Amino acid sequence: MSESSRPEVVNGIRRWVQEVFNEHRVDQVQTLKVADYVDWNPYPGQDVALHGFKNVLEEFFASFPDFRYDVDEELFEGDSVVCVGKWYGTMQNDFMGLPASGELITARRTDAVRFHGDKMTERWGVGNELRMLRFLGVARTDAEVEAADSFEDAVRLYADRVLGGFDLAALDELVDVDAVSDAAGSLVHLCVVGALDDLSVTVRETVVEGGSARVHATVGGRFARALWRTEPTGAEVAFPLTLTLEGEGARITSVSADYDLAEMARVLGAAADAPRTQETTPTGTPGDGRFVLRAFVQEVLNGRDVSAIARLVAPGATDLHQETVTMAAFLHAFPDYRFNIERVVTDGSRVSLLAAFAGTHRRPLLGHEATGTGAITRSIDVFTVEEGRLSEIIYGFDIYSLLTRLDIFPEKGRYPGTAAN
Asked: How far is C-alpha 375 from the geometric centre of its chain's CA atoms?
């Protein structure tokens, strides 16, 4: 660990956000970063060296002259800081070969930074920048994204395009960026998505009353990977699912997924005392943030053990729905996925997980057909851990680096000067 005091780290990151991002003082980059600074998640086409970062900033600020970054929270531990926030900007000039759109873009960002003294030495960053990806033509859709005329219309489109189709462009159009969901139900859904091949969603009934809706559906597919401590059989399975959605106008503001767990256990032949498909052996003190996150990654994300969710996730825990559906899209596209923990930063009850996500691109992602390419990217997730359970979850993927590795995003990060399709 490098030698940095907490005041140096606090002052360094706050100066960075204010002077460079919000005052657009690119000249301060060399003052606040070491000369051999490393950006582990560079923008496509960006040189990892310091001058490459400055060039990207200059182009970005020229394209988005009203750009600002609002930090919602900071987590500090030793020489490290994790910032969670949102950036805003209106594309008023050409960017990456694309003509100005005049569109306001809002996107969530999570960045992890290490310091030596009061200077930044390396950075990891992720963001669920669906609107930016749509604008750049990377987040495509099989059909034109429809703007919902009403909440009922938004619910119908969500069930058709997002829940069953992992259409992230439609997700961005239909679901508010701050929409929340029930974390436990979301995690059961992630386990199901990760376990089934040929996944399908059949809507049986939709009931809408004002700004509330209930969707009764069946999620089915071929049982291809372990689920709920049960080895896969290759058989066709189906599970009842009820979605509860709330909205304002034509935008969805919350989604809760409620699987019939008793029926799921019956279909799988799962039991609470069934042999584990993967033993949990995290180090640390049971109940502390690091221990809980290691168990969460091993048992829930990698092991798809539905029975572990109640033990590791607090009742009423929430996540951010856009980020969670994006996670589901990644798990679906990379069916042999695995998360490996790289770093954990703890600050009181808030804990950040830096992990590597690896797998083979075998299904469509963001409207692009499978490439068959093995790829790896990073995720940065932020949790609240209280009394040994997770109560708030924010997921994040480095989508740009992954799409570049899959040859979906232009290698140099530039388009030929015409609007994206």
From this structure: 17
